[in-house]
TrEMBL record:
Cell compartment(s), UniProt: Cytoplasm
InterPro entries: DNA_helicase_Holl-junc_RuvA_I, Hlx-hairpin-Hlx_DNA-bd_motif, NA-bd_OB-fold, RuvA, RuvA_2-like, RuvA_C, RuvA_C_sf
Positions of the UniProt region annotated as Domain III: 145-198
Protein's name according to its UniProt entry: Holliday junction branch migration complex subunit RuvA
Keyword hit for Nucleotide-binding: yes
Upper taxonomic lineage: Bacteria, Bacillati, Bacillota, Bacilli, Lactobacillales
Coiled coil regions in record: none
Biological process (GO), any one: DNA recombination
Span of domain Helix-hairpin-helix DNA-binding motif class: 70-89, 105-124
Gene symbol of the encoding locus: ruvA
Pfam families (UniProt xref): HHH_5 (PF14520), RuvA_C (PF07499), RuvA_N (PF01330)
Length: 198
């Protein structure tokens, strides 16, 4: 429903902040509310969670942080509060590297994360956090990639393919000169599906 909210921060607590947007105060649960100041103008990317016992808004400093929050929520056993606690306790790069390297012992230090949940985090998210992990970026020079192709590559990763899988088909995509990202995405999906079915 919401992508982001922009307004003035009027209150800060350990778990949430209040963002005044045109006279309406939105209560936003955040990983680290105290990184902001009262009376500061801020733009927060928002995710709305509606459940039987919850109707809440969660706010993040960037679209990437919001995406990471959603990835953590996709893991069985991780709820919104646990996801926020994990994000508040560690920077995204260290967290992503721990997941990519399968460091379950490292992950159990986060609140509410036991061995079983840590193993589930690695199982569900390993290979899907290339944008956050050090050394996991694409091997291709971005200067050689057109904006449309770059958008297509990001879209393929967002669809769940690993950066390594996308890198393998990038040379084939570079052989084409499409005018729209959609054409690169279609070709990319065809190439990836062929590799999967082989």
């Amino acid at each position: 429903m919401y992508e982001y909210l922009k307004g003035i921060i009027t209150a800060i607590t350990p778990g949430y902040l209040v963002l005044d947007v045109s006279g309406i105060g939105y209560k936003l649960y955040c990983p680290t509310p105290y990184t902001y100041d009262v009376n500061q103008e801020a733009k927060l990317f928002v995710e709305q969670i509606i459940r039987d016992t919850e109707h809440s808004l969660y706010g993040f400093a960037s679209a990437e942080d919001k995406a990471l929050f959603l990835k953590l929520l996709s893991v069985s056993g991780i709820g919104p509060k646990s996801a926020l606690a994990i994000m508040a306790a560690e920077n995204t790069t260290s967290l992503a590297n721990a997941i990519e390297n399968g460091e379950t012992a490292y992950l159990t230090k986060f609140p509410g994360v036991g061995r079983k949940t840590a193993s589930q985090i690695v199982l569900d998210l390993k290979g899907k956090l290339g944008d956050y992990a050090v050394g996991q970026q694409s091997i291709f020079d971005q200067a050689a990639v057109s904006p449309d192709l770059n958008d297509a590559l990001l879209a393929l990763v967002a669809l769940g393919y690993t950066q390594k899988e996308v890198d393998k088909i990038t040379p084939k995509l570079l052989e084409n000169n499409f005018d729209h990202a959609e054409d690169y995405i279609k070709l990319g999906l065809n190439l990836l599906l062929k590799k999967v079915t082989k």
